Amino acid sequence: MAETIKPSSPAPASSSIANLPAANIEAMPAAENAEDGERGDEQSTEPDRKRGNARRGGRGQQGKRKDRGDRGDGDSSSKGDRSRRWNESKRRKVDDRGNRVAFNKDGERVKSYMSIPFSEEEIAAEERRPKRKVAVMIGYAGTGYKGMQIAHQEKTIEGELFAAFVAAGAVSKANASDPRKIALVRCARTDKGVHAAGNVISLKLIIEDPDIVQKINESLPEQIRVWGMERTNNSFSAYTACDSRWYEYLLPSYALLPPHPDSFLGRKVSDAAKENGVYDDMLKRWEDVKDFWTDVEENDIKPMLDNIDPELRKEVLSLLHAADEFRNIDTKEASGSADDEAKTEITPADSEKPSGEGESKKSSARREFTAAEIAARDVKAAYRTALRRYRITAVRLQQLQEALNQYVGTRNFHNYTVQKTHKDPSAKRHIKSFVVNPKPIQIRDTEWLSLKVHGQSFMMHQIRKMVAMACLVVRCGAPLDRITESYGPRNISIPKVPGSGLLLERPVFEAYNQKAKESFGREPISFEKYEAQIEEFKNRQIYPRMWEAEEKENAFHDFFRQIDNFRSDYFLWVTANGITGSRERKEKEENIPKELEAELGEDENPEEGDG
């Protein structure tokens, strides 16, 4: 029996930043070196890299990239290093107080969300109180924010927290101009729109007030919470002390249904199974869902098609499984209702023209959908409704768990990220566990599965590509060794499932906690005492937002529809022809169809983290 969650309307984000003059001061963004993972785990400074990477599967000193040779100017450092140095040297300036400020390309000062101004008189009048090094445990729904990162010109989770710390008196007025003054370090960076049930930041706060946590929360929007804080030793860093991280991925159960038999991938899967003599084996793996598409066609689709003129019906059928243009599921805007879809404009307003003329042209250029397109749209909506009615079986859940088990251990995940080769030592990562909760969650009409992965560290897009691979293996009835083959030297193209389903569950500080009490006289950093609050927060603030993204944008439906109808051999490794049956890219830098870049994640800078 699925656990039913009643979505509630998310509370408005009454930003604490809005209550402070934070947007009126100019400051230079602190350096962001996030390179990794689903969350940009490998961020922070070079000393942090040296201290932490060897333990968490990073590159370390022995695994660093080989020198690519002198560029002719005596600089053989990486492109990313050169870019960061150039940006810093170009933009590093200070104001009269010695605080860094930034200028845009026109030489104008830019506003900051991470610097809160107070007059010299206000600072002088404030009582000096001692700061203590603490680990602050937080949770947030990332919708509407540019992530968990220091970004002076963007609305971020850290910006809200910093403003709340100042408003609650945990950060003095003298230190409100720059987060570096309180040694703020995050455990794991999250990117735009990504959620976290638990994350940790370390910094120096004024914590004399016994109600300090309550006061901080009163200054925060409802979608950001401080669970608690623990005193630490002075050298504690939330980034370097983190041993491992737990992530959760929320997946609609219909993602495990086989491709439609009339789709490009559906036909290729069946044809390859017959050619290789494994068709019966594939049907056995589909036993619990063998009648799904037949029933949908008979009960949902056929009655609609029967009411369409025979000539028009042919055109509608040709549109149903035509190859869709690939779109970046993570960044596309909400598609709106079916009625809105029919009113979509196909030409942008001419910004050079006066508003009246532009509006006139915009109106006259409104696209008129054909009768076949309107009918096909309605049929596609019926398919979406049928998919959301699906309820997973124990057999299919077990198949998914068996696929996830293939990731456990130390593996070479070079095919699960971008710009890494099989020979790159940093492509090897250790997964401690990857488990699907056998009890689905039901939100409105859709059933969702909770997948939780525990690993030392993760590369960019790694988790999302792992989930995509497991889904494709299950839904296409492929053998499990297809996953283990992906660790080999052959380069294959693995898409990434939508980022809207991913959240940081919690970081783990096992080594620090073991010596915290004995060596430092401090309490361990743990989320256990906040479990009830966190679960309630996820059900009220995070899960409903995930559902809203799916309901408005059809992110998962569009993702799998695009994969199923992409007429290319890039994804045919999932058929019975195996890895060799798909196109191999000889080099990761090889040009690929532009419409495919977003699904593979190769249209992004790996140094900027994941979205």
From TrEMBL:
Region: Disordered, residue numbers: 1-100, 330-367, 582-611
Catalytic activity: a uridine in tRNA = a pseudouridine in tRNA; a uridine in mRNA = a pseudouridine in mRNA; uridine in snRNA = pseudouridine in snRNA
InterPro entries according to UniProt: PsdUridine_synth_cat_dom_sf, PsdUridine_synth_TruA, PsdUridine_synth_TruA_a/b_dom, PsdUridine_synth_TruA_C, PUS1/PUS2-like, TruA/RsuA/RluB/E/F_N
Compositional bias segments (type: Acidic residues): 598-611
Domain of life of the source: Eukaryota
GO BP, sorted A to Z: mRNA processing; mRNA pseudouridine synthesis; snRNA pseudouridine synthesis; tRNA pseudouridine synthesis
Keyword Isomerase: yes
Keyword match Aminoacyl-tRNA synthetase: no
Gene Ontology MF term list: pseudouridine synthase activity; RNA binding
Biased composition (Basic residues): 52-66
Compartments it resides in: Nucleus
List of residues binding substrate: 247
Record's keyword terms, sorted: Isomerase, mRNA processing, Nucleus, tRNA processing
Domain Pseudouridine synthase I TruA alpha/beta: 403-509
Similarity field: Belongs to the tRNA pseudouridine synthase TruA family.
Biological role stated in the UniProt entry: Formation of pseudouridine at positions 27 and 28 in the anticodon stem and loop of transfer RNAs; at positions 34 and 36 of intron-containing precursor tRNA(Ile) and at position 35 in the intron-containing tRNA(Tyr). Catalyzes pseudouridylation at position 44 in U2 snRNA. Also catalyzes pseudouridylation of mRNAs.
Protein name: tRNA pseudouridine synthase 1
Organism field: Pleurostoma richardsiae
